[in-house]
């Protein structure tokens, strides 16, 4: 670096004066003493000025001698000023080795080639920075080969320079990052020069305008958006530059072949031009519309909830409520429509008596106000004065608002209380049942049991309290069973109830003689109920009853055999009696007097009834034994019914009865034994006529369908008591003698047995004092099949 003209002039003047003063002093001597003294004084002043100057002059002669102020020693951290240039550039001369070597090279070049230089050096052990400027001294200063150095203390300047360099690097990195960010931005961005021409666009801009490159966009001035209301993009940018504020507007654009609405923002940058960017508002508008639809749907949903819902905005004003909320707290809709504050809503709820009573209501209300600032949801239970239980859920909203949900849990609380009571009752009942009960969970572990269960199995409460699995429990109690292998049966039944959800029953015998019926029943909750009932006594009674029943069956067989044999044995003498009586009645023994003839008629009547009774007994015994013979043929039921009616017509006429016969053509024919069916119908008609009072009505009705035929015999006689109707079809049962006048005999049991033998049914309906109706239903197809 060269000295400035002023500095060089100053140095030259100083040296000239100094040399002039020296020459004048030598040649003029004393004559010039006064002028010499003046010159010396002037030199002292110049020396003082140099000492106080910001730069130190250093004169290096051709032989390497150094002339410089003493201050240089302080700057270099030395005790004295170097006398020669070699000392200044030595390793221990006070400069850093690399700086000293470079400075020596620069001085040598200046001495040889007269080349000026400037170099920054640093002192050893110090943060001081020195700027050395050197140039040849010239003939007037030091002669050929001499070099003039000016050393400046550049510590502060160097620090500032380094700071500026760091700041420049930082700004350059930030600019590069910003450029990369702009280039990678998904939205179009651009920069205009002050003359409003495009100077920079990013890749999103190039893609949006379907250009090949940014150079094409800039070269051809391709604009992103169209003119809107007569205002072109350049005009909008000019307006933003003129106003000095960003200008935002919505304009249409065609992006990827689709029409879009873009929000374009032009930002003035002063003398740097105008920057701009465009935001695609299509998705945002869609999102806003979706948000509005979602909010509407949410409000519709909340309106349909049975719980009360209230939503407050960030300023704590009521924004939404549903009908259950206003009803639950007795709030008027017109008051809520005014968007009251949260505190005012609480006040109105208190006025309606719909919040819990508190001694310090303002403090309570202040605590609820803090719900808006809480990071987490809050939940409380309110018990109102009228017994209403409310579950309150407070959810802070992201926008600073608050959503409150009030659920009326009065019914649930009441049900819970009732359930607890039922559970206590169930537990007490469960523990005092005569049956042993155990509940096994789905994993086979014993879950519940009663005291009877523990007593029957004879296990400790501690074992049951450990909730053992069924296999563990059966392993413990298997020794108490009469057959220990039956423990596996119990395990299998519990497994079937818990896993297969099937009910199983069984019986197990204990080694002490006790017997238990048990059942494994699947429960709706996945568990299984295991019950055990002590059937030891009932089993013994069952055995006794079984033995007695076998004895009764054997007795009944003997009775049937006796009746059969007796019927056959009675038939022989009865035949002889009736035969001799017929001969006497016919006059084979001569003419009988009137009294004898009456006796013979009585004998004939009695033998006839006895013969019918014997036939009935024989038929009953054969029917019970399954040996009743049937002669199956086609039977005309209408003809059969008329014949049976004819046989009781005289008896009905003698009692002045209204005997009605109503046989429909649909009665038709069936396949069966006409004699047996006639016997059954005779018994019914005989009973109806026999037990009807004079002047009453007896009806014989018949009709039929495709598959069945029906005969009905009804009367309006005395009827049958309900207690006797259950026994009336027993063979030897007797109705009330006082009501009927005599026993019913074997008529109805035999009639039912005959109808049953044909595959039909006989039913009886009777009301005391109203009469009796007997219905015979006979199948057509089944009769034919037989």
From TrEMBL:
Coiled coil: 154-181
Gene Ontology MF: a single term: phosphorelay sensor kinase activity
Domain of life of the source: Bacteria
Annotated CDD domains: HATPase, HisKA
InterPro entries linked: HATPase_C_sf (IPR036890), HATPase_dom (IPR003594), His_kinase_dom (IPR005467), HisK_dim/P_dom (IPR003661), HisK_dim/P_sf (IPR036097), PAS-like_dom_sf (IPR035965), Sensor_HK_Regulatory (IPR050736), Sig_transdc_His_kin-like_C (IPR004358)
Keywords (A to Z) from UniProt: Coiled coil, Kinase, Phosphoprotein, Transferase, Two-component regulatory system
SUPFAM superfamilies: ATPase domain of HSP90 chaperone/DNA topoisomerase II/histidine kinase (SSF55874), Homodimeric domain of signal transducing histidine kinase (SSF47384), PYP-like sensor domain (PAS domain) (SSF55785)
UniProt cross-references to PROSITE patterns, sorted A to Z: HIS_KIN
Reaction equation(s) it catalyzes: ATP + protein L-histidine = ADP + protein N-phospho-L-histidine
Residue ranges of domain Histidine kinase in the record: 565-782
Keyword Coiled coil found: yes
Keyword Transport: no
EC number of the protein: 2.7.13.3
PANTHER family noted in UniProt: HISTIDINE KINASE 1 (PTHR43711:SF1), TWO-COMPONENT HISTIDINE KINASE (PTHR43711)
Name under which the protein is recorded: histidine kinase
